Amino acid sequence: GENVEQHPSTLSVQEGDSAVIKCTYSDSASNYFPWYKQELGKRPQLIIDIRSNVGEKKDQRIAVTLNKTAKHFSLHITETQPEDSAVYFCAASSPTNFGNEKLTFGTGTRLTIIP
Amino acid sequence: EAQVTQNPRYLITVTGKKLTVTCSQNMNHEYMSWYRQDPGLGLRQIYYSMNVEVTDKGDVPEGYKVSRKEKRNFPLILESPSPNQTSLYFCASSLSSGAANYGYTFGSGTRLTVV
User: Fold this and answer.
1) Of B32, B53, B55, B114, which one has the greatest count of Cβ atoms within 10 A?
2) Average pLDDT score over residue span B22-48
3) Do B45 and A102 touch (CB under 8 A)?
4) Distance between CA atoms of A33 and A48, rounded to whole angstroms?
């Protein structure tokens, strides 16, 4: 099955600087890569996603890049703000033998923005 | 408001006492899933359901049961809870069983402690 590795597990960034979180996946058939943000005590929420036919997607201060050849994708946050402090999860969706898709999550990155 | 509702939010129970965590969604989603979140391990899938009466095991199904008698409800049952099931549980739903096309909506979580 799919295996998703996420690095780093913790990341501290000065406010205003950029943050990058990287994930690798193992199943070349994976075709959808969402990112979730989980604030302290809250539920994970989808912040951005990318599909396998696209190399990069941007939404204001966040962007995601995908390298299908190398099987890795990254989340980029620019001009970081205190409200960006949270745990971020990457995920990869791959087809199963039963006709559905399975979403496999990375282990999470705790991002702390230092004022 | 479109949402996934989980109950209870917090639960402390004793080893062996059967319990049920309820999950209900009002978005007419086909796909529902249960995850547990543990430090350093990310979100691991317990069970999922592609539609009414269609359920299957995820990555960590041991000690859990589910049912999907109605489209909106997907309860998680622990017949004989043990301390290693102490965790934060999330229910999630998606429009279709093809998670590649749609992101997940998560419930607010249930923090379970088994003593």
Assistant:
1) B32
2) 94
3) yes
4) 9
